[in-house]
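Example pasted here:
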Amino acid sequence: MKFFFRSLIFFFLLTSVSNSNENIRFIDINLIVNNSKVGKSLNEIIIKKNNEITSELQNLKNELDKKKEKILSQKNVLKKDEYNQLVNNYDTEAKKFNEIRKNKMNNFNNFRINSQKKILELLNPLITNYLNNQSIQILFQKEQIIFGDDKLDITKEVLTLFDKKHDKIKFE
């Protein structure tokens, strides 16, 4: 019985949406951000920065590991006070390394987020203008759509317009 009522309600909701006169479309913003010329150049910059940071942090970690091995190898040779002093210095350097790693990762994540926001800020007025020109009244994000006719997808058109308008932008 519950199934019948749910089906009946669903049927009426579906027919009321399909009979409406509103112009409805959907768009995949993530596809535009990642596959536009600007987005591809940002992805290249992000990969390059990530590789640089990873390499730099790995070098620092290797240096710390060598110092640790050296300290451990001298444990039986050094006086207890000298050994404790070396361990304390190592602990201080390890804390500095963790701070450096945390700061670099935070800066990298902030760069990535702010760069993507910059793309979205450029994309927003373009989409608004496109909606006005095409008399589109409702626009959905593609990830929120379960089923939809491909004719209602405006992603490719907006991507083409975005690439024509924004060849390159400067990321800081």
